[in-house]
Task: structure prediction
Amino acid sequence: MRFEPRARDLPRIPGALKFYQVASIITGTLLLLLCAEMVMKYAFGLELELGGAYGFLAFVPSGSVAAINLSIGILVVHGWFYVVYLFSDFRLWSLMRWPMMTFLLIALGGVVPFLSFFVEARMARRVRAYLAERAARDAQTVEATH
Result:
């Protein structure tokens, strides 16, 4: 049985979609930065340092960061933005009343590189198509009652 969004939730859906899109882009970008940082750290033994002896922004050997360790910063910021991303995922998912697998697919977008960009585009198309179809259906209902 397919559930549809409640009529009282329809005005909230565009805002939830915009919030999800912004969170998705930020989380996806931070995930790509995190992946690049992990390659630099584990493949080349380098960490990103801000404001150290080597200049404003520099890669230094792992374990020798003397100033601000941006490698750790990217990790922490991505982790917190992933929490925001999950909240935006949950909000959109609950308003649209989608199945649990849709929630899990969207949640994977924040941990699989590049996936958030594809899932975000797909979900945005899906929500906009639903809203347009619902508006057309509601307009027909109003016309039929007059």
Remarks:
- The chain has one domain: 10-141.
- Residues 10-141 form one domain.
